[in-house]
Design goal:
Elements: H1 2-38, H2 43-64, H3 72-93, H4 101-115
Helix pairs in contact: 1-2, 1-4, 2-3
Pfam family, one: FlaF
Organism: Cohaesibacter marisflavi
Keywords: Cell projection, Cilium, Flagellum
Length: 116
Amino acid sequence: MYTSYYAESSQLSGSCQKSNEVQAINHLVECLKEAKVQGVQSVVGINALYQTNLVWCFLLEDLAKPENTLPDQLKADLVSIGLFILKEVGRIRQNESDNLDALIDLNTMISTGLAQ
């Protein structure tokens, strides 16, 4: 009895976490789109980059946990994407780039994939 309750609880917890991740990434996409309009050096732009960095650091930390049950190849792919995103955020912060399109596109694709 307890085993089935635990399994059901774990599934709900995973589903809730996935939903939260989708919401967080969708929020990032909206912030990044607004930053593109107002400029990366605007308050909105700086906040969007900060939030992108924060969310992806959290996601990368979660992907590295041994209890993360995603397939190894998928985890590796997501880690690669996450590291690219963090690197691109750094480049934008250092005024080496102002291209938010890659961040918008990648986060949109990840959100779409998580929502399926």
